[in-house]
Design brief:
By secondary structure, this protein is mostly beta strands. Helix content is 0%, strand content 51%. The termini are far apart.
Length: 118
């Protein structure tokens, strides 16, 4: 039973833009919070941005504030991450994930690779 499916990764030039999308279904679509996390080689998986399903309140990592925008479409059960002014350090595998309030992320997508050329 597929619950989170990411799309939109790929190669982007430094300074360019990329948009990631995540389609949620099943139990994932009934979670309270949706997030994008990323993991670069040799590094831990870190939160990039998250948003509450109901109110749409976003939260961003300091490293992406002002450059990335997370949004959700409740009607389509999708969450997107608009990445602008992409930097080489943004290169990573990006994961869509969901959680309930006061819980950790427990449903994950398969991940999508973002590669940044300088």
């Amino acid at each position: 039973q597929v619950q989170l499916v990411e799309s939109g990764g790929g190669l982007v030039q430094a300074g360019g833009s990329l948009r990631l999308s995540c389609a949620a279904s099943g139990r994932a679509s009934r979670s309270n919070v949706m997030g994008w996390l990323r993991q670069a080689p040799g590094k831990e998986r870190d939160l990039v941005a998250e948003i509450t399903w109901n109110v749409g309140r976003p939260n961003y990592a300091d490293s992406v504030k002002g450059r990335f925008t997370i949004s959700r479409d409740k009607a389509k059960n999708t969450v997107s991450l608009q990445m602008n002014n992409v930097k080489p350090e943004d290169a990573a595998v990006y994961y869509c994930a969901s959680r309930y309030f006061n819980g950790g992320y427990n449903i994950w997508g398969q991940g999508t690779q973002v590669t940044v050329s300088s």
